[in-house]
Amino acid sequence: MSHLRREIVKVLFQRRTYVGWVGLLAIPFIMTLALRLSSDQPPHGEGPPFFSSIAGNGLFVPLAALAFLSFFLLPLVSSMTGSFVIAGEAETGTLKTLLTRPVGRGGVLLAKWFVAILYVAVGLALVGLGGAVAGGLVFGFHPLTTLSGGQVGVAHALGLIALAYLIGLAGMACIVSLAVALSTLTDSSLTAAVATLVIVLVLEALGQFSYFDFLKPYLFTARFEDWFNLLRQPIPWRPIWEALLVYGGSVIVLVTLALGVFRRKDILS
Amino acid sequence: MSETAPLTADGRRPAPEAGAGRRVVLSTHQLTKDFKGLRAVDHLDLSVCEGDVFGFLGPNGAGKTTTIRMILGLIYPTEGYAQILDHRVPDQRLDALRHVGGFVDVPAFYNSMSARRNLRMLGRMSGEVSEARIDEVLDMVGLSERGDSRVGSYSHGMRQRLGIAQALIHRPALVILDEPTSGLDPQGMKDVRELVRELGRQGTTVFLSSHLLHEVEQVCNRAVIMNKGRIVVQGPVSELRPARMWVKVLTGDQPRAAEVLRRLLGPGDVTDGGEYLRVAAGDGLVPEMVRRLVAAGIDVRAVVPAVEQGLEDFFLELTGDSAEASQETERPHDPSEATP
Lengths: 269, 340
Prior knowledge:
- The complex is a heterodimer.
- By secondary structure, chain A is mostly helical.
- Chain A has one domain (2-264).
- Chain A contains 9 helices and 2 strands.
- Chain A has a two-stranded antiparallel ribbon with strand order 1-2.
- In chain A, strand 1 and strand 2 (151-152) form a beta hairpin.
- The model of chain A has no long low-confidence stretch (mean pLDDT 90).
- Chain B has a 6-stranded mixed β-sheet, with helices on both faces.
- Chain B has helices at residues 64-71, 93-97, 115-124, 131-140, 156-168, 186-201, 213-219, 254-265, 285-295, 311-319, 326-329; strands spanning 24-35, 38-49, 53-57, 79-84, 87-89, 100-103, 174-178, 205-210, 222-227, 230-236, 246-251, 270-273, 276-280, 300-305.
- Chain B is α/β, with parallel strands linked by helices.
- Chain B is elongated and about 70 Å long.
- Chain B is built from 11 helices and 14 strands.
- Chain A binds chain B through residues 2, 6, 9-10, 13-15, 92-94, 96-104, 264, 266-268, and chain B through 69, 72-76, 93-98, 100, 102-113, 117, 121-122, 124-126, 166.
């Protein structure tokens, strides 16, 4: 617990923490404002998923924001957050300050990893809440039209939105874990962040080619849209559980790798 | 902490006998580190006893910082191990680090936090730390008035001082300081040296890495000189001097004085330096020289060191081109300390 408390305090004392959260919070408000003011809205069925539905129902705003951010901005934030975990502290020299204290390297790494995920979770929560507030204020809340054509009530829809965000967070946890693993291999957080993004893009590209279909069930990047299934009636839970299984497996493998490297790493910077 | 040896009149601790009834706080045993085929530290054996203010000297690239990193468990040795009290590093790193405070290279902190919060956070990693103790160490390093300022606003010198404060916060048995006066102004250097001396007086064992040899002469009682990853010499600082020192002698009758001194010391040890006679004489020979001259009715006007040949010259003499011959020049204080 002391590791966690220390890492949380450190994150809360960093200015960039709040810059990142404010930036994420601004996205749903900007989206809502742009749509409200736009006279040239995309026709139904075009543009990013749910985008065309925003104008009619505030409940779509947090879902659209999640879909919009999941493609690039959230992976970017996740990779940057994860990459700072070890490499960033090595850059600033504080890693050696920490490790000259009687603390286990494994505990330090796990606490940092957890707090990085917590940071992304708070960012996602701000997007969701910001989307709900902005959408509610501008468009009001109405029963949600699902992808299957049916409708669910406002309370049920809010539950589905919360679940969608949790699944989105699980996907981002994979990227954070990948970035943490890479950050144990370098003393440059920028290198770790860029490497993470490159790997995510390559994995996403692999998922696009039928030749690599045999890999698809194991790629966490191929599961980022699986939460859309929550908006079908009845909800097909199998792909959602499969996605969570892939996410969980990826996180375990990546964190184990990070622990293995970090425990034997020579701290030279 | 056990009782330590009494201080001399100038506040320095007399050279202790390594291992003579005193507990060994830090030792290294065949400690070796290779980096991609390059041997940075080569089978290093040293021991630091309780109460020592131990100088760790060497030119850049000698392997000092690599050694400290291994002692602190930051890097893994290729061979050998370090031992802090009864705990081996790296195998028992956590137990060992409970007894150590220190820093390596430039001390680094969380810039967005105050010095006080940094100390609180780092101190708690080694056990409970009271606010009174934080105040005390801030006061010791002269940062009381800036304790609540963000470390990001600190100068290099203030960071160095804060580095010492964080090393002391949990009252460790062993304090390891890597070039603590690096980048400080003269007053800052003086303050830090005085602080290290004070730690020694209080019985704290200090392991001080430095390339400033006069600094080691001023504050340490024992020292190791290291070059190219190997120990060149180790022992009490007072013994890390050339056996012979040159003095300049001015008398009322230089030719007769030269004759008297040549009889005493031998012809090769007295040369005509123009206005002065240049005489090779150890510290113990100067009084006898003066007595002989006076007994011969010669008016002695001055006896001054011909060259200020202290540890610095000795260090250059040893490390200049003698790395290969390091084993030959080794002058361990205690046979058990001899490097293999």
